[in-house]
Amino acid sequence: MNTWTCKVCALLLGSLTLAACEGGLPGAGPDEGIRSAPLGQGAVMLVAPSGFCIDARSLRARFALMARCDTLGANGAGDAPLALITATTVPTNGDGPIVADDLGGSSETVLERADRDGLTLAPARGTPPSPEPRAPYWRAAARVGDQITALATYEAQDGAPLGPRAPRLLEQTMQRTQDQTVAITVARADNSATPPDNNPRPGLLGGLFE
Asked: HSE-up of 115 (CA within 13 Å, CB side)?
């Protein structure tokens, strides 16, 4: 299973300029931008890292593209680097470890691999989904609920190198996504475990007049 083969990703990366656009991009969202969105039929709540927004045009059932907010016509970019982050979810297949296909496809070479508290990080070299991003780029994968969530970050050919910020962006995205997914899952469980009160008790005034 290769979670990174994505024609939608290639098309979007090819059409999205990796630079701040005057007036933002066509179809950009409101000033605050989209900071979170459900993936995998709501099984995962993706949350963008600081300064990044989700491109509404990119959203698919299991895919999303994130970019610096000002490149999407939104506020709040701060000092975020000029980069793109992709997110993909697929159902987990048991409790086994993250495997090679979760980190890259057959056309890529994983240069090294680090496992940190359930998150697997790896720089990879190969052919990016479009000519704009610079290689090598970073991949990350982790379990989020009953899904494997896979992330990748790409930097602009003519932009400043991300350096150590690349893995930190992926770590922050994954941590926020895991936290928000857990919070929503717990809230859903609490709501479903509370039966409706078909015999509500009268309030104070209601009791006085019975």
From this structure: 6
